């Protein structure tokens, strides 16, 4: 790897979420960041750039493979043909690394502490104030994690208008036993506002393979006006979604049965 090639890789990292270069051998550039735990190694190859996920979330390579299915060689290794493709891969890796468990929880705790430091000490120690701060900051952190994970687009429709997107919980915030559950990016989906309202009220749900389920409470006329087509489905479902999705689907089915009784 010559100096120009190394400089191009380092700049791609700096501009796309990997601002640190770690000590490594002559033929590899190892990129890292203070904002997330992922570290990646980049080398030159006959086909462009060979990139290896060296550390970070256990599911990072799996999630990257959804976007870079043809570029994945095996395991943690991806081959990217151009500098533009490398930049895109690094951006996606950085976004995912900030969203996947348990990075969102770590960032949330830092944000809560930073906000409490700006408050009067007596207020900061008030139980109700602390609860309110944690809930508000947590919901903001969860939304950002969802935007990062789903690439800023609805998990069903692909809508990319952020103002119309909501971070939906499969297991409701109030019923989660820990912050790790509340902020788990797999505990729900990024949905357009109408789908979010229906999902939040258990009027729609999804099968394990992502097919849309619609409550009998929603008639044919309402389905049409809400745009609920028979072919609608989640763009993907990870295995880590299953636990939360099955919780949601059980509540959905309870309401369906209760309505029919």
What does this 3D model show about the protein?
- With 261 residues, the protein is α+β, with helices and mostly antiparallel strands.
- It has helices at residues 3-15, 60-67, 83-99, 103-117, 121-124, 127-149, 179-182, 193-200, 220-226, 242-260; strands spanning 20-22, 29-32, 39-45, 48-55, 72-74, 77-80, 165-169, 188-192, 204-206, 212-214.
- The strands form three sheets. Strands 1-2-3-4-6-5 form a six-stranded antiparallel sheet. A two-stranded antiparallel ribbon has the order 7-8. A two-stranded antiparallel sheet has the order 9-10.
- β1 (20-22) and β2 form a beta hairpin.
- α4 crosses α6 (127-149).
- The mean pLDDT is 90.
What are the main properties of this structure?
alpha+beta, six-stranded antiparallel β-sheet, 17% strand, 10 helices, 261 residues
Brief rundown of the structure:
The protein is an alpha+beta fold and 261 residues long. The protein has helices at residues 3-15, 60-67, 83-99, 103-117, 121-124, 127-149, 179-182, 193-200, 220-226, 242-260, and strands at residues 20-22, 29-32, 39-45, 48-55, 72-74, 77-80, 165-169, 188-192, 204-206, 212-214. Helix 1 (3-15) packs across helix 3 (83-99) and helix 4 packs across helix 6.
**Average pLDDT figure:** 90
The outline comes out as: globular
The low-confidence runs, each spanning 5 or more residues with pLDDT under 50, are none
- Structural class of the secondary elements? alpha+beta
How are the strands of the largest sheet arranged? Answer: 1-2-3-4-6-5
SSE topology sketch:
Blueprint: H1 3-15, E1 20-22, E2 29-32, E3 39-45, E4 48-55, H2 60-67, E5 72-74, E6 77-80, H3 83-99, H4 103-117, H5 121-124, H6 127-149, E7 165-169, H7 179-182, E8 188-192, H8 193-200, E9 204-206, E10 212-214, H9 220-226, H10 242-260
Antiparallel strand pairs: 1-2, 2-3, 3-4, 4-6, 5-6, 7-8, 9-10
Helix pairs in contact: 1-3, 3-6, 4-6
